[in-house]
Design a protein that fits this description.
264 residues; mainly alpha; 77% helix
């Protein structure tokens, strides 16, 4: 039961942090509230993913995934506004601030915002009473699958970098959720975080370039963003081989008993 108690404690901490971030959302001056909501949703999903089959997990995970998808373009807009302000493009930034506030007001009216904390709280109540036979082995197998998926993706030079970014992010948060079952060395975790950050920098600039191609008022920054995107891409690519090597070194010993029929 020690593992389950640890999961409960971690979920309660995430519940508090999520509720605090949700309370900050209505403040138009708080530019990090939505980011914190999304981070906590991601951490909750990372905690839930290996617990599939536990009562309430599927519904809670789906609700968290839906809110994450809904808030992605809103967060992208927040990041773009910050970038425009750094370049002192006040008119472009202010125009998008009006759109941002409109989107946030629409977000605040969504029932999903209040449903997720309720579902999370209800799940926590039932978690201790559910059957958790072989929970440690089940969670370890799920995390091992994530390592395998990422290793295979890194070995494929043509693997889509957007999907790779998501695999890196998923494993990073999975390891954070279950440090007591960590499959990776501290060096591997450091490489994982470095790659996630580098791919995130590239992804931001990719999104900006896409938007600039269709929004004329962003054209003054397009060439600069394209150059920055290429530099970020090269920086991200440079992190992949070191990550692949440490995963090969630290991950193989955990894949000996891999069940190929399992799916993450």
């Amino acid at each position: 039961m020690a593992l389950i108690e640890n999961i409960v404690a971690q979920a309660r901490r995430l519940e508090r942090m999520l509720n605090q971030a949700l309370l900050r959302l209505p403040d138009p001056a708080d530019n990090e509230a939505l980011h914190d909501v999304r981070i906590n949703l991601r951490r909750i999903r990372s905690l839930l993913r290996p617990l599939r089959g536990t009562p309430g997990v599927a519904q809670l995970n789906q609700a968290a995934a839906s809110l994450g998808k809904i808030t992605t373009p809103i967060r992208d807009l927040e990041v773009l506004i910050a970038e425009l302000e750094q370049h002192q493009l006040a008119w472009q930034a202010n125009t998008r601030k009006t759109e941002l506030q409109s989107r946030k007001l629409a977000l605040l009216s969504l029932p999903l915002l209040s449903e997720i904390p309720i579902r999370l709280h209800a799940w926590l109540k039932t978690l201790r009473h559910a059957r958790h036979r072989h929970a440690k082995r089940h969670i370890t197998r799920r995390l091992t699958l994530q390592v395998i998926q990422l290793r295979l993706a890194l070995a494929d030079k043509q693997y889509d970098r957007h999907r790779l970014r998501l695999l890196v992010k998923r494993l990073r948060y999975g390891v954070d959720a279950y440090p007591q079952l960590s499959l990776l060395t501290p060096e591997a975790v450091t490489c994982l975080k470095t790659t996630q950050s580098a791919l995130g920098d590239w992804h931001d600039r990719f999104v900006w370039c896409q938007q600039a191609e269709n929004q004329q008022d962003l054209w003054p920054l397009l060439s600069q963003w394209q150059e920055a995107m290429e530099i970020a891409r090269q920086n991200a690519e440079a992190t992949l081989d070191p990550l692949s090597k440490v995963l090969d070194t630290t991950g193989k010993k955990h894949t000996t008993h891999h069940d190929p029929d399992q799916r993450s």
